Protein 1
Amino acid sequence: MYVVMVASECAPVAKVGGLGDVVFGLSRELEIRGNAVEIVLPKYDCMRYDHIWGLQLTYEDLWVPWFNYHVHCSVYFGFVHGRKCFFIEPHSGDNFFNRGAYYGFPDEHLRFAFFSKAALEFLYRSGKRPDVIHTHDWQTALVPVMLYEIYQYAGMENVRVCHTLHNVKHQGIAGSNVLWFTGLGRPDYYYDRERLGDDFNPSAINFTKGAIVYSNFITTVSPRHAWEIRHTEWGYGLGHALHIHQSKFGGVLNGLDYEMWNPETDAAIASHYTAASFDAKRENTRAMRSRLWLRQVDKPVVTYVGRLDMQKGVGLIRHAIFRSLERGAQFVLLGSSTELGINAEFWQLKNELNDHPDCHLEIGYNEELAHLIYAGADILIVPSLFEPCGLTQMIAFRYGTVPVVRWVGGLADTVFDRDFSDKPWEERNGYVFHQTDNLALESALDRAIALWFERPDEFRGLAQRGMRCDYSWNRPGADYLNIYEMIRHK
């Protein structure tokens, strides 16, 4: 099967969050299974070009229709750790992708509407006719709309689209100017709530709503989250549209790239290990402490790795720092926020705790350091208010670090409480809490820390059980191929 991923991110060359990991990991799994996969990305100036091999101009004159003129684009090709990637570079006064950052600009809707149009125009002009285009999140949600309203009449009538909702909080809300720029036009037609009309703002179109309506199948990134976004406030207003289109909607749990995240071969950690050679994990704890100026003592290390925003439960993260120290553990944080107020709060916290021998807060993100922290820590906290899937708990399992999570989304689908789960003993792999208050977090975190101190052999066994979990792309890869086969024959 021939599959084209159209996305705004692909790890590690252009990564902000889990979306980039999914695009890379799923593409790799599909290729392992014998499918032809290509990835189409914007050519950002801030990409990690050191992760691209053989970058070369492959399509020099792509003229993309845009409002009442055409934008000249160049398309480059290169390999990203074996993945075949095309990068679209527009030569335009709008300077869409040469801004030193991936996201965060007032014309975001136009930037990615243009990219979606350019990606389709590239496939059309270059004669590429994939069996399936797989689009991701709001940034590429107009691809299925334009495919079925424009490009299917130009010879792409046999192409099908699968769209994945990674984070429905961000949906792509815009005005009618997007319709005119992309060549869709006809505001009266698209503002209909059966098409792109936003269900709560009659003067807006909703990119994600369009993807739900026009795609042949819609997925989200865990079965639990599929239920949540249809039936709870975490659907952010999309519940009705998903209910109408429920026959083509389902949850597929994300996988983890087990080649990139592998303590047996990881070049970024101090000592390699497996579940059978678990003692070597302690070398990584020593190396992490040394790098982060923590004292070398016989204590568990609790960590948080990831974005600092309201979705992730920043209040609970802050509480976990002080609770861990109070209970005799060390704490390491690696993360930052796009929200200035949250970032300032954690910088202040870093200054307060800067001389504490058992605490280190690293405000920012460093992929190599993240690997060492996963390998060196004992306990990972993930206190998310909502979490579509979550990869951090899967990485923690892989590195023998016990996750303490809130029972929500993909966290509920992957972490099963050691003491209270109804799963068999051998499937229990972490600690879970349900509410969003400090006491709920303490109920799980205290149990994890206490087990480390009081029954170290049992803690070790719990960590080793996590290492034996299989959250690779093997099963979700098969699930996506089944979806692709189904929509191909519709």
Note: The radius of gyration is 23 Å.
Protein 2
Amino acid sequence: MVDMLLRLCNNLFAMNNRIAVLRADRKESRQDLAKAIGVNYQTVGFIERGDYSPSLELAFIIARHFAVGVEDVFSDKQFEQLIRKKENI
């Protein structure tokens, strides 16, 4: 019962991110990103999959690494496709 409630809460407050897309754009591995931001490469995988929400400090470090705003990396809503976003600019 507790496990089910935890999963429900995680789904309600799911954090979406574009880390994998940003890494792919730079041809950067999880290991490369992890080394650059000072975490274990498995942490990067957990964050990408939504299994772990980074601290605010780590979220800013990740955003700074990609030279974008935090809201360009993380959102509590589904992201619009990047192509569509660029077309509207």
Note: Helices lie at 2-12, 19-25, 30-37, 41-49, 56-66, 70-73, 82-87.
Protein 3
Amino acid sequence: MNLRPLRLLLLVCLLAMPAAAQPLVLVTTSVLQDFVQQVGGDAVRVERLVPAGVRTPDFEPNADNLRRLEEAQCLVVNGAGFEPWLAECLRQANYEGPIIIATQGMALLDLEGRWHEASDETTADFGQGLFDPYAWHDPANAVRYVANINGGLASLVPARAGAFRIRADAYTKELQKLLTYTRAQFATLGAEPDHHLLATPLQNFNYFAAANGLKIVPIPGLASGQEIRPAVLERLLSGITQLHVPAVFFESTANAKMTKRIADETHTKVVTTLFTDDLGPAGTSTAFYLGMIRANVDTIVHALK
């Protein structure tokens, strides 16, 4: 009996099979997308719900987003109030699938800078905005993110649990190397207090600062993204001069004329290259979490020396 036609037919059938074995996992941020891809590999299909260029807290879901959520087999969110629109989005999409809350089991800072022990009330705070959600800026917290994602994916695809664990363990080792690198870089700043001041209007770096012995110095009279009126700018210039800090840090979207004037008139270094809500552009090392954190570390340490 000639089995070749049967083998060819079987091959064609396998190639034509839908990618049902590859469940769709929706994530809310580019950081979570990287984590899920690192752990899930080719066993899952990872897509981002919030479009690139849109701040996750400001996202407004549309009908297409709701359809994608209806199709998803799993949803990965940051939690801790970072997705204030999530509860309503889930209701409208009638989504009843699993949700992996990446900050589950993690101690969190509130908006006053106080630590709170891990609880369901902190991490599952989808809308109240009581906590600082930017926990991923500390790589030690990223280890917890990866562990939570590993556990969630193992429940979603039990047959691949062993592969997920191997990938998660390997990636955790890379995160631990990043922690070692980060500590070594900040150790080069020495004990001079002025070299440990992070002057910024940004509210993204509280976990980063706490982990690396930095003190956040809020820029007076300025909220991130705020339009600058002449009187406000004058107060801002005066305030920065009085702070006696080695550098001030803004988002890359900060007004270029404003930051140039700050540098010129206060003789203070102005940094506008930090990554805050998202990873960097595709095709660069900062498009991945490890490269993004390393870039922020190098930028901050260089500016504070």
Note: Residues 188-304 form a domain with the Rossmann fold fold (CATH 3.40.50.1980).
Protein 4
Amino acid sequence: MQKRRFVSTRTLQSGMRIDQAIVDATGRDLIRRGAFLDDFQIEYLREKGVAGIYIVEGEPDPEDLLGIHVPEYTKKVVEKARVEDRSKVVLNESIKKLVGEGIQYLFSNPDSDSFVEATDNIANELANTILANDAVAVDVNILKCNDEYTFKHSVDVATIAMIIGKKYGLPKEELKDLGTAGLLHDMGKSKIPKEILNKPDRLTEEEFEIMKTHSTLGYQILKEKGKFSDAILKGVLEHHEKVSGNGYPLGLKSDQIHTFAKIISVADIYDALVTDRPYKRAFSRRTAMEMVLATSQDLDIDVMKSFIGSVILFPVDSIVALSNGEMAKVVENSPAYPMRPKVVEIRTGRLLDLPNDTSCANIIVL
């Protein structure tokens, strides 16, 4: 839900979204309405003596974007039943841009003398953002930071992994290292031939065997730096291991696999499923969650429970399609049942308690 407020230019921050146009004497837009402000634009406003501007926070109402009319009686039911989502990670545009560009630099310069320092700076930015508040969940719809899959995926995995780690009970001092391992888990792909890495079709068996070396290559890149903890190294090396022993590169089982790798594995699989690739369309969030749950024989059960309790698939106020043919508005999420939020049908105003009411058992969110 969007909120508009007036902010003094003295307190403006990069990444805030302006809710008015800044024009010159001819009426030409200097800063368009809806733009995310950067440091240069903020300094310009201050130099021009602008005392303050209107900014907008939050997301636009989904029904407005979809052109859906919500009857007044439905609005009253929604207002009465609505419960705010538990505290979520918020990555503003400037952080997403900074971290995304930083990861792109690392992948392009794995042999750089400044690699360790740059990694530390990027990991600190992400960790400080995630740990600065009491966030206990992540809305997987807002993570996209870059159109380039490898870099976007690395930031998404690190973010999801840190929230899972928080739920899992890892101490705060370990969460930054977990985030670092998440950011660098695919670093070995910088050594994979581009024709394989960027192939628009499915890989052949021979190509896949080459691709599978990326976890070992990433481990070697980081180990040679001599600055990364054993936990980070194992998180990178073992993130494709499975508790069943069917993973790679070492075929480790259960307790042989480091906790960081178990957490990154879940985050990695989920994010890959919900992301478009040249050779496949992204799965829906609900389908991806079902697919992750279906591989429970390969994933650590306690990490899976932490994942289920950490991810918000359908944020409060979002519009969803139901299997009974109705459109509905989400009014409350249940950490134990992320695929079954409490909703209100838009047309009828009927409240459906999907996680608890057995009479709704045959209705699912599509």
Note: The mean pLDDT is 89.
